[in-house]
Amino acid sequence: MLMNLERNCKELMVKGEGDCGSRTSIPSNMFMSIFMKMKKVQKFLNTDVLFDVLTRIPVKALLGLKCISREWHCIISSRSFIRAQLENNELVLTGFILQEKFMWCKDDIKTVSYIPVGTTTTIGDAKMQHQRVFHFLPEDVVVLASCKGLVCCRSCFPSEEPTIYVCNPSNKQWIKLDWNGCEKNESIALAFDLDPSFDNFTKFKLVRVKQIVICEDEYEEIYLEFELYSSETGAWWKSNETCQCGNNLIKNKGIYIGGVLHWLTDGDQVLTFDVAKELSWLISVPVPAFEFETIPEACIGESEEKLHYVLISDVGLHVWYLDDYYESKWTLKNYKSLEEIEGKYPNFFFNLKNRVLERVDVELSPWMNPLSFKDGILLMKVCADLFLYDIENNKIAQTCTLQDLNSKSMSCPTVLPHSLSLVPLTHA
């Protein structure tokens, strides 16, 4: 009987590739068939056994199982269950949140898309993309950061009362924060550690990075300063820490790994900030951009709890991971030449290297652009298409075209990896 329950749960999970907040996209007749099977299983299980079995099931399946009965819904929604489920399951990448933005216009693009990552051994089933990710919030939002299932976002501009939201799209719970002195292009990162022992509420911090200019002896020096928000105190405070850095923060802003936030800059450096100690420092990237014949594109991400740096140039696709923060020591993990990538996937790519070589000016749009990286999976744009690339297994799947997304401006989109989780944002 337990084997039947597990099999039905897996069937529900694999066949339902809903967005990050939906129950599932299984056809109604198929869902009803699975529903009836689960109802029969319930008759033979007591609550303790049912509790134990359900805690071993991934979140994607649990979101569908909530509707089996009122008892199942109460079990899956309880904090004791969520604690046990977190202990029994690792968070895995389930998709990427993508939102475009205009380069020179003050208005925000309201559309947010969700690109799922397949649940099977391949990265297939990737062609689906959804555009109702945050419909449960009271207004349209701009995504800022994602961390272990939680997402930080803000009001779309123009807005009379700009607000910051921290939410969990899986359970549609959210909290609202005041946002004083708001600026459209500032970076706000989310620091959240999964703690299965949480009791009354979920603890997290926000880190806001602001650029300031300090005049010294007729010279202007550009610094970064940090402001923090704690969910425990419900208050913002200004850190004493500053970092001399005249570069801009780009892409994947605020990757949180082991208590440290990371931002990629456009000056061949990664800005880091230790949230607990309130200390910042700069790390040099493995290879500076000037060493390449053309202008390369890069992004940072996390895999196996280490910071990774992904670079695409005319030489090929490189992936490094950071070995030592203080010595800026990187280790090359993967390398694929453009010819090798094109040779394995001739239906997707043609004349890759020559196309990449054409970008000799930063004003030109890159032919290949790594957008986001998590757990060995790279979301990249090639010409007018988006692809998921499982680098370790050298498998590529096309997700969608820019036309599918009704693209308005893909020059500098915000792309965040996302993992489904049951982490609550309401008080117990």
Automatic annotation (TrEMBL):
<dbReference type="InterPro" id="IPR017451">
    <property type="entry name" value="F-box-assoc_interact_dom"/>
</dbReference>
<feature type="domain" description="F-box protein At3g26010-like beta-propeller">
    <location>
        <begin position="139"/>
        <end position="341"/>
    </location>
</feature>
<dbReference type="InterPro" id="IPR036047">
    <property type="entry name" value="F-box-like_dom_sf"/>
</dbReference>
<dbReference type="Pfam" id="PF24750">
    <property type="entry name" value="b-prop_At3g26010-like"/>
</dbReference>
<dbReference type="InterPro" id="IPR056592">
    <property type="entry name" value="Beta-prop_At3g26010-like"/>
</dbReference>
<protein>
    <recommendedName>
        <fullName>F-box protein At3g26010-like beta-propeller domain-containing protein</fullName>
    </recommendedName>
</protein>
<dbReference type="InterPro" id="IPR055290">
    <property type="entry name" value="At3g26010-like"/>
</dbReference>
